[in-house]
C-alpha cells in the first residue's frame, strides 16, 4: 500500500478507520484484504481500542503502512471510531470510511463506493452490500429501514440469498450500518462525530438520521461488496444465549435513546415507548424464567438509564 496521502487529484482521498479491540487474526485478515484493493488514494487509520495484549504495536510491525492510534482504554465503538474520524478530519481527507475489523473486502469495493458519490452529489453517506463471510451468498446487510410508529430499526435483506435481492436497483435508505459506512467529509462536519453516549449499538442509526436531517441522502451501493465475520469482537445479537449482560444493557438503553432522539410527535413517541415496554417486559420475564438473573438486572439498568439519561450530546469537531 504505497498509495497513501493526498497526491492523487483524480481520486478523492479516503481515510479507512478500523477499530481493534480483540480478535487480532480477524484484524489481520481485514488488513490483508485491504492490501489488494484497487483504489489508489487512501490511508488506514487503525485504532487500538484498549486491547489487552498491546495488539496495535504487533499490527503496526506486520503492517507498517497503517497509521496507528492508541487508546489506553476501551472507548467503545463510538469512542474508538471518533478518535480515528477526528484524526482524519484534521488531516483533510475527502471521505471517511468506518470498517469493522471482522470484515474482508472485494478488491474494487472502494472504487464502487467512492464512484457512487461522484454520481450523486447529494449522497452524504453510503454502505456496501454486506454478506456473511461464512456463507458468501447470504446477505448480512443491504441497508436499514426505520418503522417510525414503533421506533424500531430493521436490517434490509438479512439472511436472504443473493439471488433473492434486486442488486441492480439503487436504493435510498433510512440508515446505513457502521460495519462499512463511507461518509462525505462535508456531511460529517455538518453533523459531528458519533455520539459517545451510545458506546456501541444503534450509533449508526443515530448518525444516519442526523445526516438525513441536514438534507443529505443515504444509500447502499450494491456492487460494492464486503464480507462480515459476524460476532468477531462482540457476540452476535441474533442468539440470546450468546449475549452478555453488557450487550443486553446497551441494546435496551440505546433503543430508548433512539426513540428519544428520532421519533417525533407525541402520539408516535407514546406508540414507540409502548411497543418497547411490552417487548422488554417479555425479555425480563424470559430471563427470570430461565434463571438468567444478571441479564435481567442488566436489562433493568438499561431501561432506567435509557429513560433518565439525555442522549442529545454533541461531539465537538477538530478545527479545519
From TrEMBL:
**Cited SUPFAM superfamilies:** Nucleotide-diphospho-sugar transferases (SSF53448)
- Give the domain of life: Bacteria
Q: Which InterPro entries match?
A: Nucleotide-diphossugar_trans (IPR029044)
Coiled coil start-end: none
The protein's UniProt keywords, in alphabetical order, are: Glycosyltransferase, Transferase
Gene Ontology MF: a single term: glycosyltransferase activity
Could you say which protein family the record assigns here? Belongs to the glycosyltransferase 2 family.
Q: What is this protein called?
A: Glycosyl transferase, family 2
Q: Which organism is it from?
A: Mariniradius saccharolyticus AK6
